[in-house]
## 1
Amino acid sequence: MDEKLVLWGGLECTVNRVRDRFFSQLDRNGHVTREGDLERFASLGIQALRYPVLWERTAPRGVEHANWSWLDARLPGLRALGVEPVAGLLHHGSGPLRGGLLDPDFATHLAAFARAVAQRYPWLEHYTPVNEPNTTARFSGLYGVWHPHGTDDRTYLQALINQCKATVYSMREIRKVNSRAKLVQTDDLGKTQGTPAMAKLVAFYNERRWLSWDLLCGMIRPGHALWQYLMDAGIAVDDVLWFVDNPCPPDIIGINYYITSERWLDDRVENYPEAYRCEWYGHRLADIETARALESPTGGIGALMDEAWQRYRLPLAVTEAHIDATRQDQMRWLHEIWSAASDARERGIDMRAVTVWALLGSYDWDCLVTDDRGYYESGPFDVRGVQPRETALAALMRDLAAGRPHGHPVLDGTGWWRRPGRFLCEPVVDDARSALPLPARPRISPETARPILIVGSGSLGRAFTEICEQRDLRYKKAACDDVDLTDASAIDRLIETHLPWTIIDAADLIDVDEAERTGVESLRCMPARARTLAEACTRHGTQYMTFSSDFVFDGMRAHPYVETDDVSPINRFGSIMADLEAQVLCACPQALVVRTGSLFGPCDEVNFLLRALHALSQERPFEAAHDLTFSPTYVPDLVHACLDLLIDAEAGILHMSNRGAVTWAEFAIQAATIAQMDADFVHARPVRDLRFVAARPAYSVLASDRAAILPTLDSALHRYVEYLRALRKPGL
């Protein structure tokens, strides 16, 4: 074995087809045209990168018409940066042939492209001609999700055999050019468990998961557990035995592992949400992630590594490690997989690498890329700004690659796949499993027990404490009344007592009209208090975050404000906020100052929407301005995003609002429509008729050049109304 476990990276590059629509991840994540990505990837310390050398992009009209310019500009660049490309020729795609995966020329045509790649780049040594052939065949031939939308075993198996045969042909052609070329064969590897009534189906699923590797290794012949299944599906004997005569065992078995990879099958369908109920092979059942159903954790990826090693005795690598989750859970997931891989090596398994997948994130995998919804999962880089933004995963990767311990405090917690709130049903108790040892946990140093210190006991402070609880983030609270936050020595004592890694100044902001009317002392003290907190954070090397407002702008424009726009407040509250921003960043340049639109959310009992919906539920008129345009901010979305940004160690000014611009009248009408109330009771008025004390900017819509990460306003409103309904608010 190599001296140590190494780190690889991966770039989500799927080009899948749904009916006659094609979905390309490379176009959506911007890598196709963006300069500088290769240097970003190399900076992570990775030794290899699973990189798209895609057939349908490079040679859609045949090898003789191939356009190599894009690859010519990138593959040698990776090599020069010391990162070895693992060339992926087809990634959940079906190639450019009309018949796709079922085309009779699929295997020979992909092999011709593979040979052309090897001839042009003879120094390439690692190839994945077809990514996840078993998974792609299931989605395309059995589940009907992707082209050709088959829903039967024969279509599934024929698509699988075609892809595996294409892999054999491709490696044969590649090795004619480069005899040292190695096959890194990836596929999703999970495990299925279930109730006793599901035992036969569970056993079948657990054999089926190996099919792509079994075919390539020439292991499927009479007597194989699934031989009769293949014959009953109508697959020709010669098509199967061809692999016995033409084996192409992988040089590295690539394990792709997700939280959805392990499944629980249950015949008691009434115990599960409707979305998880289905019918397969004559069984009516619930099919759900084990993490969402089983009270005790499974053996996780460590147990699956053992199974793969015992079955094949070939070198292994985790070729996709990724989870769609909040930042601390993304880090916990990667750290857990790395620890499991390290433990596997200690047990004598030839485990080569762990691959951090989706370096630039991925789009719309929540719907299996069957639609263009804009749902984005970030990775080590988040591409929702003008330039990719590093997340905390990047720093974790650098430490793993260098063999350094990573001491971020958020690793001292439990991933959601083990937390009590993960269940979507009454958890299933398995006495045999509960006696098993837990899967490998990250090796955490004692220093990581440091908490978040939340200053403020109002609605925003409550939201932070509740969401920290949900995310298993350690925190301490400090009410503004308990500590003199203008006293530097008192703040020093507070920090020395709790040793926080970050301080969140979550004190509720003062009402803008009250500020204008009275110039309240608490408002005038805000900049000084924030500055004192910021100075203390600088002294103690602690992160600091505070909040500002869209009211720092004068509204004399008709397009959204971004972080670099000059401030020009038109009321007392806005002036105080602008002063606070300047003082904080002067005292602590690494502070994070978050500007928001007007807030609404569960912890606030007096917000505009709640008053509007209460009035409409009683069929009373509700007045709102039709000439003030802004971008509201839903507090749960804000808090989750702020916690992620703090974990990422972001600094400076950053805008946070839900995507969408509305007037106050439109805001009330949209909420009323979602709540199925009579929106005619919303009376749109000019702002001059509403007798506000403080001037308002006519247009204060916020956008971000740095991190446009909050969901849409429509999504936020639907979730807020559902929350109110769950509380049985009057009229909802």
## 2
Amino acid sequence: MIHRARRAARRILTVLAGVAAASVVLSGCLYAQIPAGAPAPARTADTSGVSAELLPYYSQKLTWKSCGAGFDCTEVKAPRDWEKPADGDLELAIVRHRATGTSQGSLLINPGGPGASGYDFVHDSLDYAVGADLIEDFDVIGFDPRGVGRSTAVRCLDAKQMDDYLYGVVPGPRNTPEWEAALSARDKTFADACEANSDGLLPYITTVNSARDMDLIRGVLGDKTLNYLGYSYGTFLGATYAKLYPERAQRLVLDGAIDPAVPGLEVSTIQAEGFESALRAYLEGCLAGRDCPFNGSVDEALTDFRALLSSISRTPMKNGDGRMLTVDSMITGTIAAMYSQQSWSYLTKGITAALQGDPSVMMGLADSYNSRNPDGTYADNTAEAFRAYNCMDYPVEEDPAAEAAVITQLEAKAPTFAPYWQAPDPCKVWPHAPTGVRERITADGSGPIVVVGTTNDPATPYAWAESLAEQLQNGVLVTRVGEGHTGYNKGNGCVDQAVERFLIDGKAPKDGLRCE
């Protein structure tokens, strides 16, 4: 049997590009009691330029109910198929925190994913999602995109089945035909369950459709143009919106950018390189402290860490609840802690415990990333929606030469993660063909679009922010010099001021602003 090069694992790819999972669990930032503003005056829905067949959607009347602590919530009906709006509806869950001052209108927030809940992100951690000045000036809107959470959602497996899928030990030596066949069979079972349990929704779970939903939300809320803050995958959603509706894209901030022109194979490779760089930065900081489980130079510590990964790959560790810490879960836990420099101490504790034969801390990090609760239930459907979006958004690439080149590049630039970053593409067994394209987005005719990039962002490397800002006709690049994923509201006053002045006053920062 000819053993072709394996494609970089898309199941690790873009779910790493989000702030929602790390925001509450890892950095401990919880919503503070922020006083609610006076009830916002009702604004008339904006139906300008809307076709007759879409007018019932854009002119729908919303019924708001209190959701506690200054929040109210509602549901917006959207066409399941935007190309055939008569074919049925789906529902989009919306939560709003009214401006504590005089409202300028709505500010829509997306925390990333794809598949992360914008509803929960805003409701549960408002002051992490946005700063105080934005809370004062805008009705902050969190929404679950189609397929996600409280909206009409993708459904696949029950909790026990999800445990088996995310944490189960795959039989056979890693990266052998036996192992690949077992993994592909597991992916097929997952895909078949999504198709069976999602009521025909899967073909319509795309970023293009979600961007159209976002314009619908804007319209029914009565805003003439879009005010938007998108993190990570939310930058792809925002850029897609600007491509579709450039004249309405007037105040968009895209933080932790994804380059929409980069092919899926290259995306995964660049992410692996980003996490390799972040791992080196973590180890440098670890070695300078007192509790580091490693000694010597960064390179020597990397060698020891790779040995730990290799040992767990050969012999997974049994957790107290009976689950096994596999090397994939070890990698997931490691990556989860890379989102924020403040989370590095969790990784130190996890590695130290694992070296002593205790997998519980690393399993806890992986659980937080996978939205798994201590009682074995799952808090949301992030993993399921993530797969649904990626399999429709990313074209399947069938190029053995390119796949071989990717593995060579991985081994050279991300040697720690390379052995565990390869797997059969799970989207090859997805029940619907992808409709997305990978191409440059220029958004000709938009207002200024502020792109924020962090120099050592592991999940969305800085080069992507540079590229997106360059390809957008009116892109403006703001650079945060530092570690971790995304740049706004992370303690850098220069970045925060640039973002907030733009959203509040419409004054774009100088292109190339660098915030040390």
